[in-house]
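Re: the request from the purification team.
They wanted to know what the chain is likely to look like in 3D before they choose a buffer screen. I agreed to run a prediction and write the result into the notebook, where they can find it.
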Amino acid sequence: MRAAVTCLGRSAEASMNDIAQEAGVGRVTLYGHFPSREALVEAALIRLLAQGDEVLKTVDLTGDPRDALRTLMESGWLLIAQAASVLQAAQAALPPGRIQELHAKPEQRVHDLIRRGQTEGVFRADFPADLLASALHHIMHGAAVDVAAGRLGPTDAPRFVAEMALAVCLVPTAAARPRPAPE
């Protein structure tokens, strides 16, 4: 499993042969544990999500929702950056519904925080919490793509991700509110 995470982390297209070589076993041995590449990719994603959940469980989400969102996004960013290539492999190998199922627990943490921020009046309530959570998901994954492409420095990404998340979620000030469309 460690070899799968390593190989898929380097390249979403890593083959069973690449993974077997990394693990120091033959392909037949690897297929003895995982009947297909899809099964191995799913197992690798599950492993990374479980490791990420252990990290995110330690993030304090009490107190000011703005501070909690910043901390959650910065912590979540590091996990996304580490797992971006494995997620890319999973997106190519697994049905979209399965990936959503596997992400349900981490996404619930974000939804709960956004709903609390909306209730407390610091996050915008003019958009559904699910839409805001989806936007945050896209911000993190987009930043991972930009880091991989060299358009964003990996040390700058956590701050940018957190700032963009707050810009999306915070109640807009009067100056920043959209103007009504002309009639």
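For the purification team: The mean pLDDT is 87.
Please add any questions underneath this entry.
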